[in-house]
Amino acid sequence: MSSFYRNLCLISLFSVALLQTASAHPHHDELTEEQRNAPVDSILWIHILLQAAVWGILFPIGMVLGITRSRWHVPLQSVGFLLTAGGYILGHSHKGRMFLPSVHGSFASILFVPIAAQLSLGVYLKLHIHEKTIRPWAVVAHGILGKAYPVLGWTQMLFGALTYRGYCRGDHLGQCLAHYIMGSAFIAYATIMAIILLAGEAWVRRSGRSPEWWDSWVIMLWGIVNTFTEHFGTTWSVKDMQHTILGILWWAGGLLGIFLARNNQRNVVPAVIIILTGWAMSEHAQVLMLSTKVHSVFGYTLMLAGFARIIEICFFVPNFMPDAADDDNTSDHTLAERSPRFQTRPDISSESGKAAASRAFRHLPPFLLVAAGLLFISATDEELKFVHENGMDHVTYILIMFSTAFLIYSFIVFLLHLYSTTGRNAASNVAAKNDANIEMTPRGIHAKWYARVPNTGRESEATRGLHVIGDDEEED
Predict the structure, then answer these.
(1) How far apart are the first and last CA of the chain?
(2) What is the pTM of this model?
(3) What residues form the membrane-spanning segments (predicted)?
(4) Nearest Cα to 276, choosing from 247, 315, 240, 236?
């Protein structure tokens, strides 16, 4: 116990020292033209690159390793904490260009709360005390905080980009909030969709709810909020009307989607809502032609994501129905070699062309949603005005966003691959578990020891004759 308190005190002292360093950094309520346009020095560039690497790459990898109980989780997160502390100091030690007080600096101080809490919980869990009382709750809290790190990191990196360019001040704040929140929501939706399609099918089956049930609830709740937050005052502009009716569209369509998704049924209502939203966004009137082009491509990308989702639901994705109860005719535990003639779950385990097409096609909707989210985030008036003044056309700008989308989605898929191949999900650990308990192989997973026997009640005429062993007896 004394070791725990000693480590906790060291963490507290370290946090206080960093806060004192931050308070010693001068803040500028007003900037001269020289301070505003001074070149960015190397210290600030190191701060930007270091914090982006830690919060954008290192901490998400550490989060996945923590979920899989990998032995590399603690070393990686420890390195991340040390690097982010160094990056914090660098951010308050730079010269050259100066910045007004911003949400980026304020949020950096707020981040000390989850950092200190996560460190404290990590040290406490390493002590393996209070196993039956406090520790189970500490494990839950540690997991929740760890899973929040990618969201916190993404938010802080967006704040950093805004601070670097001096965007989203004054009258531009409302537009920035709309673009950054909704664009980030599309990327989050894409991430959740990828998790469900690539690694979360078992969870969906256990929940007894189809993915569209969850989608529809989120869309409906978001629509309710959007309906009452897009207009203030007595004068209605065209954009106010468009944004408000989009909110009504979302909660009305979400309500229908929830009803149709009852009893674990699939439906295309969320995809239709995405298509209609994309069409509305593509018709948004803009001041600059560059902005009009970017908004149009954003809308088309969103529409394409919706159409891809419909195709996926109707032709590729399994039904996520709960497995049937075991009986003598559908046993998972019959000793036999796996036979391709008796696949009880052809939509999942079959190596047919349709299964291969499904595995390839299911990446398209989440990738398009990532691209759409990035396009919307980057379509604010201030950002596009800067692009226009620097002589960049819409083709180059849009391709930059799609290139970034490829990188982000590659990292998402890499994290899902890491989840499937590390820690307790590593092939060696799974094989050892199956060898130790071959009778408890989960239904739907084909172990090397067992394969199903066919259901004789559903046996086809084509396969009935294949069960005859030996020669038929000749009739007298």
Answers:
(1) 89
(2) 0.78
(3) 43-67, 74-91, 103-125, 137-157, 177-200, 212-229, 241-261, 268-291, 297-317, 360-377, 397-419
(4) 247
